[in-house]
Amino acid sequence: MKLTHKRKENRDVNLDSKAILMFLQQVISCIYGKTKASLELTFSTILGSMALACQDMYDVEIADDIVVPVSHFHMILARSGSRKTTVYRLAMAQIHQIEHELAEAFSVRLEEYKRHYVLWDEECRSLKKSLQKAVRQKEGVEEARFNLEECLKNKPIDPVRVRLTVTDPTPEALLKELGEYSCLGITSDEGSALYEGIMRRKAAISNTLWCGDNYRVSRVSTGSSDIKDPRLGMLVMMQPEPHDNILRSQGKKIRATGSDARILRMDLTLVTKPIDINDLVFGNESDLDNFYSIQKKHLLSGIERRKRNAPRTCMTFSPDAKKRLYDIDNQVKCLMEPGGELYHYNDWSARYIEHTARIAAVMQAYITPDSSIITNETLESALLITQWYLNHFIVKMDMIIGASDSEILLNWFESHLARNGSYDFSRRGIMQNGPYSLRKEARLIPVLEQLSDEGKIQLWEDERGTHYVKYLAFEMMPSELDAKHNIMSGRPVYQGGYSVFSSMPLEE
Questions:
Q1: Strands of 58-63's sheet in order across
Q2: Residue 337 near residue 455 (C-beta atoms within 8 A)
Q3: pLDDT for the residue numbered 5
């Protein structure tokens, strides 16, 4: 894994062209010839449309007996003029075409249903009158009842409308749609209002549906109903500014719900070195047609599967890929421990392996449509892609929501070492002159205790009862500290050697 841990460092927000498998390179190359849009933008959009087509046909096993959906929540941020809409239309063309055909077929079935219902209703009315007459005359009651019961059994079945996507649903409307057909994709090439609505109101709904759990809806007006075996995907494109404004005002609240940890977010404005089209394998129109053909196959197979109430195909990893995924899982868990590089991003990191598995499963379903085995090559590609999305998440959270209290305090320690002349800071001095937001004891103490648990500081007191903080996560070495402190104090640069003792951890 290639992850950085300092906020001030430039994270690897550029996508490695090696992460894009040849099948996708050819598709992206063809779309680039039509749009000249960013390859990163095209890649994320294509991947999102691929997941939407697969989500009702496939699941993926991420560990022994742990099976999850392959649904993705994609959020693509790009400024106006980035050709978001053009790329979106091409990526979603097959899905929208099938949706249009399904809508036309539904209209025919609906008209047929209405005709049958009128005939059935009239027959029932007539048989009810016959039963009433038989009851009054006390003759032929059983026969009349039998005829009515048979008629009632033959009530025409309401046609089910298969709606593949919705563009701007409220949470209530989304649940209503899923109640009618419980596989859906939220898609939009201008999704600012959509993102704000979903994140501000009932974000837990999307969390539950991302996991594929059954959902019970209770309303005073309509009563209770169950959404069984749901699958929900998302492909939302929007400009960075409204997205960032929402995060600034609601970021911590949104993140606390776990919603951001389920999103594969890509901000095109963060990319510093775009992929060159010459780095990809050339593709032509036949490659795009092949992509559409596979997408159509997965969509229609998922619809047919749901009709028959058949199980989904479960994608599994080959033995070498399974071992590789297990090793990465252990690495990520270590990085999430207190003091680790991913400790402050453990919400997204906790789903690192699941994101990877979902991405790998979707790509494999297109590369080898007739096989359910995910190869190690596909897994390695998915790991690079997941890392890319994670780094975009980290940079975005740091930029918009800002540093955590512990990061603020560590940065303050580092920037005040030369003035302090020692790695030991008095707690009283921190409360008087430290970061303004941490000058109250009630807020400072929990941060100090957290950093102590992480091994980045030690808390101690001298014989007079004065409390000190020993800063252990320093970057400035004692020799440099002494030289800078001497300059500030007007003493010779070479004089010193005092701070080396304060840099040593205290014995427990």
A1: 66-69, 58-63, 313-317, 373-374
A2: no
A3: 32
Task: Report in angstroms the alpha-carbon separations of 194 from 166, 190, 227, 246, 397.
Answer: 11, 8, 22, 11, 20
Pairing of β 183-188 and β 66-69: unpaired
Please write the tens of the pLDDT for every residue from 261-279.
999 999 999 999 999 999 9
Beta bridge partners of 314: 59
Q: At 185, which helix (H) or strand (E)?
A: strand 183-188
Geometric angle at alpha carbon 186, from 182 and 189, rounded to 5°: 160
H or E element that contains 285: helix 285-308
Which amino acid belongs to residue 465? G
How many other β-carbons are positioned within 10 Å of the β-carbon of residue 189?
Answer: 19
Q: What is the pLDDT of residue 405?
A: 83
Would you put residue 309 in left (φ > 0), alpha (ψ -120 to 50) or beta?
A: left
Pair 193, 187: CB distance under 8 Å = no
d(CA 86, CA 43) in angstroms, rounded, equals 13
Question: Residue 171: is it exposed, middle or buried by C-beta count within 10 angstroms (0-12/13-18/19+)?
Answer: middle
* Residue 119, token pair as written in the block: 């005939």
Read off the tokens for 415. 């920037």
With bands split at pLDDT 50, 70 and 90, how would you rate the model's confidence at 498? Answer: low
Domains of the chain in start order, with CATH, are 17-58+71-100+161-400 (3.40.50), 405-502 (1.10.10)
